[in-house]
């Protein structure tokens, strides 16, 4: 009975850090050898990091990645390694290197290139047209890359017809709500449909607005998990797979036999014979199947990981946040402390004549609970001086949004002054609901280098705050209970100027993420005039969203790469 031991190296890799990524890959190859592993697999484009985007137009970048692959080769002795890299032939390819016996044995080029949402691979890569199988002592292992496995036929189905027992799929699959479950269900379907085992290794970490969740796993031909790694953490998942049992299962099922009988090989299939003897194991591996995380915990961990990596990978150390005593700034500050530590988070209170006593108390209590240093700048005198300058020009004009925005812009200036003086990056605190309808001040509360909650609806902000308080109650209860307000004029409430957030958020979701028309949305039980008003606000504020800081993608359609609406646009509902 042959037992193949496979390791999935779920690593946090950094785009462009070819040297650091390579060192980490070598480190985990050594770990795999210590554990009597036969095959160790690393994520998609592990050497370059993912997505490298227009770095791929730099020939030196591609060449450095190829040199790094050569540096890995001497460590490949007594083991097989699958490593993601950029291959260079007549064109460049998203590729998997198959390394054995201290050399590059074979290369697989990704067949299916995603070109939707955040993916833009056709801009850079040529697609592969070959299917690669490894023959190890008569057992066959297929190699695929990320998008390849999302298609029910080529190449996974062809691999099964060609007799593989196991497919190793290397990934850089970013997180959004529901993605972990969707990915698992899809792979389990591929395994059961094709009567094969599949090992799926994914990277983790934050890269600009993307967060990679890891959640690597392996499944048997019946869809049961053989192993399942952690989410949003580095992990090293090792499992044993008995290959003869897979072949026996295939013999008892007519599906593959019937497919083989009608199969006319048109695909180019490369079968690589690997000079490698499967190890006789002297150690046993404990089964590792991590439990699924609830959705709210997934989102919270994604925000923490995305913020931490954005700050540290960009060379920053500390962040500064305007604390209003409201729910958004409270949650942002809490996530920042969880991501960076209290010593690296600074809070700024900037009360005006409209700021309530309760808001000041809530901001101070939050800061005390989190243990962060705060500064207080009262802005009334600054505001009055601005108005003294502007009054001769504004004479005869009523108070309106101009005076409200002026307060927000004063606060933005103060935050940016601290950022410039001390090198602290400003975290914007706006959420997706506000960014959708433009309920934010350009160059005011929108200033910042990163927007943690940019893709989080207001209703979800409350859910996340309640989740975090269930761990330890740091956000004051009154913040969760009081009506949200910008406090830029007397008795101001968000919902008086917009709609109740549960209604607003649902309309935004149906328009932005489902692409429904006003009439279709109205049929879901919403007032048609309210729907049209919300849609007008969304359409009219595209110019503002383009100038907002980037933030962490959480939904299937985040503003940015997922949403590419023209600013000049005469198509209106």
- Lateral arrangement of strands in the main beta sheet: 13-12-9-8-7-6-15
CATH topology of the largest domain: Nitrilase/N-carbamoyl-D-aminoacid amidohydrolase
Q: DSSP helix count? A: 19
The percent of residues in helical segments reads: 25-40%
Major sheet details: 7 strands, mixed
CATH architecture of the largest domain: 4-Layer Sandwich
Write down the CATH class of the largest domain: Alpha Beta
Q: What is the total number of structural domains? A: 2
Alpha-beta content class: alpha/beta
Radius of gyration: 27 Å
CATH superfamily of the largest domain: Carbon-nitrogen hydrolase
Distance between the termini: 66 Å
Mean pLDDT: 95
InterPro entries: C-N_Hydrolase, C-N_Hydrolase_sf, Gln-dep_NAD_synthase, NAD/GMP_synthase, NAD_synthase, Rossmann-like_a/b/a_fold
Keywords: ATP-binding, Ligase, NAD, Nucleotide-binding
Binding site for ATP: 322-329, 429
Catalytic activity: deamido-NAD(+) + L-glutamine + ATP + H2O = L-glutamate + AMP + diphosphate + NAD(+) + H(+)
């Amino acid at each position: 009975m042959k037992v193949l031991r496979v390791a999935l190296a779920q690593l946090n890799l950094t785009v462009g850090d070819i040297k650091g990524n390579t060192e980490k890959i070598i480190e985990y190859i050594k770990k795999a050898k210590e554990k009597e592993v036969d095959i160790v697999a690393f994520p998609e484009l592990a050497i370059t990091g993912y997505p490298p985007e227009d770095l791929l137009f730099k020939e030196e970048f591609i060449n450095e990645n190829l040199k790094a692959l050569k540096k890995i080769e001497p460590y490949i002795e007594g083991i097989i390694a699958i490593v993601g890299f950029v291959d260079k032939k007549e064109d460049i390819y998203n590729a998997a290197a198959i390394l054995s016996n201290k050399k590059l044995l074979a290369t697989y080029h990704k067949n299916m290139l995603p070109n939707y949402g955040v993916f833009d691979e056709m801009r850079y890569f040529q697609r592969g047209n070959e299917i690669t199988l490894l023959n190890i002592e008569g057992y066959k292992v297929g190699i695929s890359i990320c998008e390849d496995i999302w298609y029910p036929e080529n190449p996974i189905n062809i691999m099964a017809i060609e007799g593989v027992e196991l497919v190793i799929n290397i990934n850089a699959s970013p997180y959004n709500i529901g993605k972990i479950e969707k990915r698992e269900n899809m792979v389990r379907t591929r395994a059961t449909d094709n009567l094969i085992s599949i090992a799926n290794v994914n990277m983790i970490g934050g890269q600009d607005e993307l967060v990679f969740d890891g959640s690597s796993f392996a499944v048997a031909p019946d869809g049961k998990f053989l192993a399942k790694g952690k989410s949003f953490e580095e992990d090293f998942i090792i499992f044993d797979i008995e290959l003869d049992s897979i072949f026996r299962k295939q013999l008892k099922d007519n599906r593959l036999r019937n497919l083989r009988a009608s199969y006319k090989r048109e695909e180019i299939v490369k079968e690589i014979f690997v000079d490698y003897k499967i190890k006789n194991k002297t150690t046993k591996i404990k089964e590792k199947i991590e439990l699924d995380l609830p959705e709210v915990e997934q989102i919270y961990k994604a925000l923490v990981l995305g913020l931490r990596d954005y700050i540290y990978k960009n060379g920053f150390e500390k962040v500064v946040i305007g604390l209003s005593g409201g729910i958004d700034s409270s949650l942002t500050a809490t996530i920042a402390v969880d991501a960076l530590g209290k010593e690296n988070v600074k809070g700024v209170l900037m009360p005006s004549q409209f700021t309530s006593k309760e808001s000041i108390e809530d901001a101070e209590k939050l800061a005390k609970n989190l243990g962060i240093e705060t500064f207080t700048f009262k802005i009334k005198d600054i505001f009055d001086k601005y108005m003294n300058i502007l009054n001769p020009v504004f004479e005869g004009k009523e108070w309106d949004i101009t005076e409200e925005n002026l307060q927000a812009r004063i606060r933005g200036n103060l935050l940016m002054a601290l950022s410039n003086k001390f090198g602290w990056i400003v975290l914007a605190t706006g959420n997706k609901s506000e960014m959708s309808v433009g309920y934010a001040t350009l160059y005011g509360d929108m200033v910042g280098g990163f927007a943690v909650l940019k893709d989080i609806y207001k209703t979800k902000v409350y859910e996340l705050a309640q989740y975090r308080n269930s761990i330890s109650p740091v956000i004051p209860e009154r913040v969760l209970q009081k009506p949200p307000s910008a406090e830029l004029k007397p008795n101001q409430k968000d919902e008086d100027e917009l709609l109740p957030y549960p209604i607003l958020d649902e309309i935004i979701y149906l328009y932005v993420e489902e692409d429904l028309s006003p009439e279709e949305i109205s049929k879901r039980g919403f007032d048609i005039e309210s729907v049209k008003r919300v849609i007008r606000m969304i359409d009219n504020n595209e110019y503002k969203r383009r100038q907002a800081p980037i933030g962490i993608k959480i939904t299937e359609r985040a503003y940015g790469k997922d949403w590419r609406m023209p600013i000049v646009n005469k198509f209106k509902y």
